Automatic annotation (TrEMBL):
This is Carboxylesterase type B domain-containing protein. Belongs to the type-B carboxylesterase/lipase family. PROSITE patterns: CARBOXYLESTERASE_B_2. Gene3D superfamilies: alpha/beta hydrolase (3.40.50.1820). InterPro entries: AB_hydrolase_fold (IPR029058), CarbesteraseB (IPR002018), Carboxylesterase_B_CS (IPR019819), Neuroligin/BSAL (IPR051093). It comes from the Eukaryota. Transmembrane segments: none annotated. Keywords: Signal. PANTHER family: NEUROLIGIN (PTHR43903). It comes from Steinernema carpocapsae. Residues 1-16 form the signal peptide.
Length: 596
């Protein structure tokens, strides 16, 4: 049977006359490039769920195919390396596959079109590599749709059920994504109707399928039996009971019901809890409506509107989005509107960069025209009346936490710098730790990591690391390889050159690992405790306090009001009105109740 599978695979993947040929990427690595996993999402299939292909249509191309369009800072990026016809994957395998051994597969979800030769260097005799493109932005998440997540699920189904069996292989899959891709992979883990890896106690059928059935009939010692026979019978019964208990424990420890699209995950600076993917439904739907108006497709019914939008060119959609302004604190303009709770657990590395991703302005992009007015507008967005009760009070707390206790409010560069820290704390540090804890369980291992490198996939996997990143990437690659093949990033041995990386809840303290730029590692605990305490404990508690008096929104979320036309300072429950408030007075002589 294995020979037949091998022959069929050889025929299917090596018929050059059909444009189907395995490509020798490196000496010991064979690539199957540009494999379609769904029908092209073009014309009437735009804004539709991915449509599966027949088996005979899932064949490689002569080269890798472009990735899907990405949105960067609210703009739709159109490059020669991207296309709307983008639902493809590439599979890189060791040339000499041992069909008797399990092949692990590390699947990168990215639309960045990596250097496949560089990616092939990550292939080993027991680890294959795949790269998958999937829809993002309005094409993946328009209004209430989740086409992009369904792309992810279908691509993994094709890899595990269509491609690997063609080689007679059984293998497990580790997925890896960075920033938005990581968040969407995290959502995919809990999409309804797609069961996940979870442990359960074995049934009798399970036990029988894994272990030989042992039937022991033990009779009570008869009255005529010798005392030695009685003792031996009791000893045999006790031994059999211990064996059954030990067998049951072994089955519980080893038996994992794997119905998931992936077996393990590496989330780099993104997960389903981060603020970038937890905006209110009305904000996301409003962005979709704005796009319909900008393209003159705001028709009476949603069906008509989508049909109209399907007739628009990519350039027309890009130009329409380019005219729209999105507040960065609201995160991704187009995002999945699905349940954000963790329902299923699986081994995971949850990593976070110490800097914001490129979708956010960096401190180096400070504009000298930035003012205290701009800072207050930011504060009104990140702690808005629609998200929080007692928002004015909470903004005051944030002002003292991030400004008054840290620096000079007259320093506008400092104000802008602190807005970056607020986003990082509220939208990334606090929710990432909450996600890691939610994913952790006594039967599951979660490894928490902090690192300073931006775009870690590009620097360490998709291109050759330079001198400044070589040591960092070497260590990081070791972690990912071992996690993908062994289920843990390090072994449990005490090695000064490669310290053990403990899973959360595996020892007395919740240690996480800090991987520095020079490749050196440190153990730390109390992961950003102050930020988590402020945003996860203090803010929710203060939002529940019942206050009396008048409360009005500081700004409408889409408004041209200046910060001084309507102030928190006139909220009756904690201020006294001062009509002659000016910006100069606000900055130079602001008493306690005028700080906002």
């Amino acid at each position: 049977m294995r020979l037949l599978i091998w022959v069929w695979s050889l025929i299917l993947f090596s018929r050059a006359e059909d444009g189907v040929a395995a490509m020798e990427v490196l000496e010991n690595v064979v690539g199957y490039l540009g494999i379609p996993y769904a029908e092209p999402p073009l014309a009437t299939k735009r804004f539709e769920d991915p449509r599966p292909l027949r088996d005979e249509q899932i064949i490689p191309s002569e080269k890798a195919r472009p990735g899907c369009f990405q949105m960067i800072r609210g703009k739709l990026e159109l490059t020669k390396d991207q296309s709307e016809d983008c639902l493809y994957l590439s599979l890189l395998l060791p040339r000499n596959i041992n069909a008797d051994k399990k092949l692990h597969v590390l699947v990168f979800f990215t639309n960045a079109n990596p250097d496949l030769k560089e990616l092939a260097r990550r292939v080993t005799p027991d680890l294959g590599v795949a790269q998958v493109s999937f829809r993002e932005g309005p094409f993946g998440f328009f209004k209430n749709e989740i086409h992009g997540i369904k792309d992810i699920l279908l691509s993994l189904d094709v890899i595990k059920k269509k491609l690997l069996p063609r080689f007679g292989l059984a293998g497990d899959v580790t997925v890896i994504g960075e920033h938005d891709a990581a968040s969407l992979l995290s959502f995919a883990a809990d999409v309804e109707g797609s069961a996940r890896s979870r442990r359960r106690a074995p049934t009798e059928t399970d036990t029988g399928s894994f272990w030989p059935q042992v039937s022991l009939k033990l009779t009570s010692p008869s009255s005529t039996a010798s005392w030695a026979e009685k003792i031996e019978t009791k000893r045999t019964a006790r031994k059999a009971k211990m064996n059954r208990k030990r067998m049951s424990n072994r089955v519980v420890a080893r038996f994992v019901e794997v119905l998931a699209p992936f077996d393990r995950a590496v989330f780099l600076s993104g997960n389903k809890y981060v603020g970038r993917f937890n905006e209110r439904k009305e904000v996301v739907e409003r962005n979709a409506d704005r796009l319909l108006r900008a393209t003159e497709c705001d028709l009476p019914s949603e069906t008509q509107a989508l049909d109209c939008l399907r007739t628009k060119s990519i350039s027309e959609i890009r130009n329409a989005i380019g005219e729209m302004k999105f507040e960065e604190v609201h995160g991704a303009p187009f995002q999945p509107l699905i349940d954000g709770n963790v329902k299923n657990v699986f081994p995971a590395i949850v990593a976070l960069n110490t800097e914001l991703q490129k979708d956010y302005l960096s401190p180096e992009e400070f504009d000298t025209s930035y003012s205290y007015t701009d800072f207050k507008r930011f504060l009104a967005h990140i702690i808005s009346e629609k998200d929080y009760s007692n928002a004015p009070l909470l903004r005051r707390l944030a002002l003292y936490e991030y400004i008054h206790s840290m620096g000079d409010k007259h320093d506008t560069y400092f104000l802008f710098e602190q807005t970056r820290k607020m986003i990082l704390d509220k939208h990334f540090y606090a929710p990432t730790f909450r996600y890691a804890i939610a994913l952790n369980s006594p039967q599951n291992s979660v490894y928490l990591l902090e690192h300073p490198q931006q775009d870690i996939l590009y620097k360490c996997f998709f291109t050759t690391p330079d001198d400044s990143t070589e040591a960092f990437c070497k260590r990081f690659l070791q972690y990912i390889y071992r996690f993908s093949t062994k289920g843990a990033p390090t072994d449990s041995a005490c090695d000064l050159n490669n310290p053990n990386w403990p899973a959360l809840k595996s020892i007395k303290r919740d240690y996480f690992l800090v991987l520095n730029e020079d490749g050196q590692v440190e153990w730390e605990f109390d992961f950003h405790l102050r930020a988590i305490a402020f945003w996860e404990d203090l803010v929710p508690a203060m939002a529940k306090i019942e206050l009396t008096g008048k409360r009005e929104a500081l700004f409408e979320e889409v408004s041209d009001l200046t910060a001084y036309e309507e102030e928190d300072d006139v909220q009756l429950w904690h201020t006294m009105e001062q009509p002659d408030l000016t910006e100069e007075k606000a900055l130079n002589d602001m008493p306690l109740h005028f700080d906002l």
